[in-house]
Design a protein that fits this description.
The chain is mostly helical. 72% of the residues lie in helices and 0% in strands. The protein contains three helices and no strands.
Length: 80
């Protein structure tokens, strides 16, 4: 029941959740009252580092997640 397949599913679901975050609604609250462009803030705060990580995941992983999601959907449809 527990194994690498379940770990893979959980990882993909968490990356999907990060990839669909709305920058203006959610991510602006993450670092406080700064502007939605996130310019001119201190790069040493935890919120700013987390925001940079989230933006990197959204930029780099989005095309890869599309492929992984299609593979998972076909796998689930065929092997259920």
């Amino acid at each position: 029941m527990f194994g690498l397949g379940l770990l893979f599913y959980v990882t993909i679901l968490l990356l999907n959740a990060v990839a669909i975050l709305n920058e203006e609604r959610f991510l602006a609250r993450l670092i406080g009252d700064e502007s939605p462009s996130f310019g001119g803030h201190n790069p040493e705060t935890i919120g700013t580092r987390l925001l940079t990580l989230i933006r990197a995941i959204r930029t780099v992983m989005r095309p890869i997640l599309v492929v992984f999601n299609i593979v998972i959907i076909f796998y689930e449809l065929v092997l259920g």
